[in-house]
Amino acid sequence: IYKVYSEELYRGKEKYGIILVHRNITREYEVNQMKSEFVSTVSHELRTPLASIFGFTELLLHRDLKPERQKKYVKTIYKETQRLTSLINDFLDVQKMESGKQNYEKRYFDVLPLIEKIISLQRVNAPSHRIALESQDGEGIIYGDKRKLEQAFSNIISNAIKYSPGGGQIDLNAKRDGDKLVVSIKDEGLGIPEESIDRLFNKFYRVDNSDRRKIGGTGLGLSIVQEIVKAHYGEVTVESQYRKGSTFTVSLPSVPGHETVREEGTGQG
Length: 269
Ligand code: ADP
What we know:
Elements: E1 2-11, E2 14-24, H1 26-62, H2 67-98, E3 107-110, H3 111-123, E4 129-134, E5 141-144, H4 146-162, E6 168-177, E7 180-187, H5 221-231, E8 235-241, E9 245-253, H6 257-264
Parallel strand pairs: 4-6
Antiparallel strand pairs: 1-2, 3-5, 6-7, 7-9, 8-9
Helix pairs in contact: 1-2, 2-5, 3-4, 4-5
Bound molecules: adenosine-5'-diphosphate.
Protein name: histidine kinase
Subcellular location: Cell membrane
């Protein structure tokens, strides 16, 4: 996209020339478009939980409700508050990443118990899904930021749940492949149309298909995943069949168990 500026040149009353400046404003245009997308996503995503919090607090304040009902409403308010917090954290994270201010505190740790923990936390939101992890003990040791990787795996696993609204199987597999730890997360959900795959990890990108229009989101989750995985010198990829399911694969440089022990100075030799 180009913007053209023109300026006519006169000597007295006589026109002797014209200056034309073509400026490429494609980037500006894209940035503006992203900004307006951002504003509409943010306002929509913030308004939904806020409306629900507002509505339920009003009920609690002005109605005489049975204790069970009160408790149910407070639970909803609690959940919506959590949602708001995680939304705002996502926005802040993206901003930090953009400005290069994201700090990673890396050390050696085993990813497998972390993934198990995420699964048991997420099971609460997934009563109609079966979530299973296949792995081998001692294979999950890597050098990384535990909190950040928890965020990355949580995003992928919660997407697997969120985008398989009919329930189904979610299979996680963690195995070592050479000097890498490869974790795959496979679901039987809505899948991803082929033309969306290239943009899937872009900031604010959401698949805009009727099958998922009612599912909320900001389009930030996967961009955060990619950023975190890259900061660990790893890679995240996706394979998907539309309407059949998706498999996200994260590979991270891994440290074989015995090397870690040596690193910590507790091994023999
Ligand atoms: P959000 O979920 O907030 O829209 P994400 O960045 O996490 O943002 O995901 C981007 C898009 O990728 C989503 O809008 C969704 O359509 C698609 N997507 C992500 N994970 C899956 C999945 N497991 N199955 C189907 N579609 C997915």
